[in-house]
Amino acid sequence: MPRGILVKIGKCKYCRLKKPLAESHLIPRAIFEMHGVDGEVVMVTSRMVGFTGRQRKYPLLCVECERSLSGDGEDWTIPLLADRQGGFPLYDLLTRVPPDCADSDVAGYAVVRNPDINVQKLTHFALGIFWKASVHSWRGGEVEDLIELGPYSDEIRMFLRGEGPFPKHVALAVGVLPKPVRQLSFSEPYHGTSGAFRNFFFYLPGIIFSLSVGNRIGDVKESCFYSNALHPIIVSDIADDIQGVMEKVAKNARFSKRLIDEVRSRGLR
After folding, report:
1. Per-residue DSSP letters for 129-173?
2. 37 — phi, psi (to 5°)?
3. 259 Cβ contact list (under 8 Å, min separation 6)
4. CA separation (Å) from 57 to 137, 172, 255?
5. pLDDT for res 179
6. To 10 degrees, what angle do helices 152-160 and 119-133 make?
7. Has residue 40 got a pLDDT over 60?
């Protein structure tokens, strides 16, 4: 069965052909279904922090491209996220192999030595979400794209479709939290810092993805999860840092009463 509900005829942002378009989701629908509470997750945006079952969706892609994005990354990655029962399958897979370096509470893993981690699918998943955020606003009444990747947006699209190499001036970093994961909320992609290059993030339970773009990324490129032949992943308990960043993103947002009650009753972060 095709994924998504057919909405209208239009130009698919992914293949750029005129086709019947389906309801595309910024954060994959399966995350709500597999990792939510009664179909809801804790979402952090600049406007709202709280439980929500409302999924950002828009007729962005055709059915075939929806299926491609799901099969090329989402279906492999989503079941590996941390859950409310204390499980974290990706961490379990990652730590089956000893770290290549460790210092205090930080450990570095060369995924090239771990056949259980699918580098291509994890990369495709992360870049797929960053890319979708760069080609639509995902916010009612607004026209500006959620994040601005400039010319790198199309380079990423071509890589995702297998029509081009991994972009030269793009670096993806993957950070994993150790178990038990305290930070179980989600965030949409957001603009972190600007300087010599631009930096973007999004967080899903247990994993933070960072994307750096610009022709002056320099040494950052050397630690790129995809481009570096070792495919490095850092494991560190950065829950407090993630919490601080999310608080910055949501500094003017409204906090739901239900979330406040949940935090108080269960001690969630």
Report:
1. HHHHHTS---STT--S-SS--TTHHHHHHHHHTTSSPSPTTEEEE
2. -110, 110
3. 42, 49, 50, 51
4. 10, 25, 22
5. 92
6. 140
7. no
- pLDDT grade for 143, boundaries at 50, 70 and 90: confident
Residue 257: the pLDDT is 45
Q: 28-42, 80-94, 146-160, 165-179: which range is least confident on average? A: 28-42
Whether the CB-CB separation of 183 and 242 falls below 8 Å is answered with: yes
Q: Which residues of 55-91 are buried (b: 16+ CB within 10 A; e: fewer)?
A: bbbbbbbbbbbbbbbbebbbebbbebbbbeeeebebb
Identify the helix (H) or strand (E) that includes residue 69.
helix 63-69
The stretch 210-226 carries a mean pLDDT of 95
Q: What is the DSSP letter of 222?
A: G
Q: Which amino acid is at 141?
A: G
Say how far apart CA 11 and CA 87 lie, in whole Å: 40
At residue 6, the pLDDT reads: 65
Contact indicator for 203, 190 with CB cutoff of 8 Å: no
Q: With contact defined as beta carbons under 8 Å apart, do 170 and 212 qualify?
A: yes
Q: Six-digit token pair at 51?
A: 């439980």
Structure tokens belonging to residue 178: 């150790």
Under 8 Å between Cβ of 14 and 68: yes
- Separation CA 259–CA 269 (nearest Å): 10
Lowest mean pLDDT: which of 119-123, 173-177, 204-208, 251-255? Answer: 251-255
